[in-house]
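Worked example 2:
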Amino acid sequence: MFWMLIYNLMILPTLFLFGIITCLFNKKIREGFFGRLNTYTQLKVFMNKNETENDIYWFHAASLGEYEQIKPVLAGLKEIEPSSKSIVSFFSPSGYNHVNDQNIDCKIYLPFDFFWIINRCLKIVKPKKIILAAYDVWPNLIWRAEYMGVPTTLFAARFSNNTSKLLPFIKDFYKRVYSSFYAIYTISNSDNNLLQLILKNSINPIIRVLGNPRYDEVKIKADNFTVERTKSVLQRPKTLLLGSMHKEDENIILESIVSLMNEINDLSIIWAYHEPKDQYLDQASTFFKSKNFSVERISKTKPNKLNARVCLVDTIGQLAQLYWYGQIAYIGGGFSTGIHNVMEPAIARLPIYFGPRYNNSHEAEELIKNGGGFQIDSGTDLFLGIKKLFNDETTFIKASYASTNVVHRNLGSATRVVRNIIHD
């Protein structure tokens, strides 16, 4: 009761007030905030249209990246239980707006985590299970589900060595939250050990090490893209892919990219912002043109017919295939909120560079350990690293092989997660 009171009387109202204030200045937060106001109505309409006895599974993903973990699990569950219904909730508009999956029966924003709102939503839906991906855990959703006898499962759970969840006072709070889960499936043994430290002496939940279904999803995408998959990486155009770029990445590496292009005359780049706003694209276009590089946008030209030295990606959802048109990748977020999806360039056989904030990514740690990924601290690091790969074919091939091998060695997690969701 102590942590429930602290959370509901202090932490949650503070977060809610902060959300209201930031809505005034941040369009993305504002969109998610107002989307949540409509969640209960959406659920009510959905349930009225589906007055059946079919089981309902409620999945939750923070954003688009986390849905890549849910997607193969949801598809596997639908194969085994085709009559079941699936609700998928998102915290971020980037997930809600850009996920379109035939296996989703109802797509919503995660409701505000106030006790009475969660209670109303769970009462109307009566889900058989609630299944969360990775890390976006909201206490009242978990506590109320436990009270109502709805099993909750967290899969692809990830805990870094320096997590604040191990700090004495904070650990007590998370012990109360995680011990209310019915089952938690971690990615690795290391994650399992850290979870055990948080749960110390708790008899709940069921804990298993089942891996990361994101590996399975990127393999499925790669198998669907067969033309470029058959070619050797060294036979591709000499192209550097810069995916999911943040402004912080740009500030660190932009001048080094220009230096690379000046030194390597046949090097071109494909540049994709995490959020491809016209303002960012126009600024990038102006900058590269000022350096005497030709610039074009990807929506106007097919990747295999690019003539410009700089190609700016102005839509979302293309990166998974675009990686197959390049030789090396840089993935953004490592100088700000944490790196984005490194598995899509890995399955495309690209050596991958990223900034120092990669503790949120088990995949990035695997890439570094196996020689397919490289952490940089500066633009100079990137410049020297890429030049070394282009100048040393043996090193390049070794990094390319290591990158893809990380994916292949970790396949099968989705099947394990589905099996345990059903049987646990």
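The chain has two domains: 2-213+411-423, 220-409. DSSP finds 18 helices and 14 strands in the chain.
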